[in-house]
Write the structure tokens for this entry.
Amino acid sequence: MKRRDFLKLSGFAPIGIMGYGWMGHGWMGRRHSTNSNILSLKPKKSPLPIPKLLDPIIENGIKKFHLNIQESHHTFFENINTKTYGIESTYLGPTLLLRQGESVEIEYKNNLPEATTMHGHGMHVPAIMDGGVHQVINPNQCWSAKYTVNQPASTCWYHPHLMGKTAEQVYMGLAGMIIVEDEESKNLNIPQTYGVDDIPVVLQDKKFDSSGQIDYSPTRMEIKRGYKANTFLVNGAIEPYFNAKTGWLRLRVLNGANARVFTISFGLFKSFYQIATDNSFLEQPIKLNSLTLSPGERAEIVVYVDRDLVLQDRNTSKSLLYIFKDESIGLVDSLPTQLTNLERLNIHDAKRVRRFVLNMRRGHMAINSKIMNKNRIDERVPVNDVEIWEIINPMHMVHNFHIHATHFEIIERNGSARNVLPSERGFKDTIYMPPRSTAKVLVKMKDYVDEVHPYMYHCHILEHEDDGMMGQFTVVSNS
């Protein structure tokens, strides 16, 4: 039986070792009422949607992007129009390609019936261009992030950051990727043809009601645990497929879920290589059989396509993306042994230690027993000082920790540098914090001093962030 005929008959039944196929993923007998009555809904069988590369306008040497944030409808299920939010699209947004050293202006027009913001997650920018809780875009208004790209090659993303509404707006579809290139990345012998062998992969999970509409209605317990669902999406599609050429395939994987932690794998016996973390290349490719990403984290991986593959979530044994080997030969058939040389910070240069305890206060999520208050500055960080930030999760639940404005190094987990995984040894902006764990990261705020406008640090489980697990800091002059 031919592969495509197999798909038609099986409704995306598994072809990998660990996959269980769509019907095996729990459509029958789910506990959640919002999912228990949608047996008649059939997921749309489709190729992997590839977000378009948005074409900029060049004016006076400035690369300008214009993005419309809008209400829309998207087809997750056959013959069902689901209400969504999108950015220049029915769901999610286009990919923005930026290059180190160039001047950019990203203008967002809010066509929603409610306010929003748009944060460049992972972008090293001035505080007033960060798109945090203070840069609100009201309905029918525009806001622009203007800056010079000042960071190495990386995979970043943009998403709302509105106080109390971030989780719902991301859940409805507001997110997109930002790819930063530099001279070093362009000269590496790695897959670099967007949409062909260099593919964005946005992982999410979603609840739908009996009519196929998105259901975002967390209970108080689901706010504490994070809002999770049993329907998994890749770039807004349910179990899509991608036709790949024989050779190395690069996947820029973003955990764009509200709360779910994904552990990605191609099965027990298929290895792959991680080449980048949130904000930088790793110095050498790291061979892996699985990789865990918490919400907001990114990783660039390459896998050799010599047969059909299934990208899976090992935590749930669900299939995420089917990769079918094409007969043609790919553009890259070998990988470099050295990717970059990272200019690391020196722990002995650290001027101070700051401690951030992820806990609760009066029933709400908090940091250092303080619930987020956008009128309060929690920390003042001197520019160019090396600091150790100690992050403590004393709770019996998963958290993580994201810092705006900077790219940090993980130097210790649970009291030892040996517990830092090789796959974590690039620069990052988000760190996974399992239950009852500790970590230390090395931080240095650079370039942008603003003693009035703050950046944020917070848990990137979006329900936790909205509930109060967030704080603010300003970068102050060092004098």
Notes: The domain at 347-476 is CATH 2.60.40.420 (Immunoglobulin-like). The chain is about 5% helix and 40% strand.
